[in-house]
What does this fold into?
Amino acid sequence: MVSLAKVWEYKAKNGAITEAPGILTLPVAARTRPSAPLKPKVVDQPWIRMDEIPKVMEAMVRRVEREAALRTIARYVRKVRFVKRWRMHKIRDILKNVNWNGVCDVMYSIGDQLNAPTERFDKGGIGENAIATLSNGELTWINGVGKDHWVVKLGRSIESKFERTQSDFGTNGALRRTLKRTIKNKLGKGSDSAVIHNPADWYLFWNSRSAFLVDAATVQAHARRSGDQICAKVPISEMYCVFMTNDTERKVAWGSADYLVRKRRMQQDMINDIAKRYRTTAEAALDGFAPIPTRRPRRSLLRRLFSCLSI
It folds into this structure.
């Protein structure tokens, strides 16, 4: 039978720290090693000299100012995000109050009369004016460069981008996943970049069946240069739906408005008003004078003699 003392001795020889009752036994390597001198404890922050105190104070002040600036920036970012979301909801509510059925009826009544290249600007202007007219005074049609509407309450601008219904809806009648619009026509001027200078605050992508609202930052992120134009292809998931309807709900007939006839008549009336100012010289000489009496025809001597005898 092995005694307990033999077990402790065996453990001590193999380098294990063992503790017998009342005796502290160290490993063999520790018992043979000479005792090392005690080292002073290393302090994390050493002592600061008197001439370094101003520098340390300046560094501490800069650190405090930097932390305060970061907190201010964080509060500003949160505020900007909140205001941006608030404005988005307000503008979306304002646009939802527009009588879109009336706007779509206006565009539906025009039909394909203004699809010619020289008439497309009139078509866009009619739609923009209809939106402002049927918005109950919430929007003002300004017809500016890159800005079509002005939100009166919020002081923000909206750019309206109209496109035919077939471009946004597929052959099966379903809405496409992305909507493409021409944001700016550079006409060969400027650089090849797709940066939109002086953009509107919001963009309205709409047709005779739907309307979607998107902010300028999202449009700029998806803007690409296409020839001499800047186009944006924005996914539906990054836009806000304002309204969606069907063409079967229209109360007017397709192309029922005789817009071109009225336009030609108005143009002719304007030309006639100007043409009246350019009359002949004889007609212009009579302005302001009494009409010249017509001269009686001269009778012969024989007829005058017979007239006297008849008396």
Notes: The first strand starts at residue 18 and ends at 20. The mean pLDDT is 76.
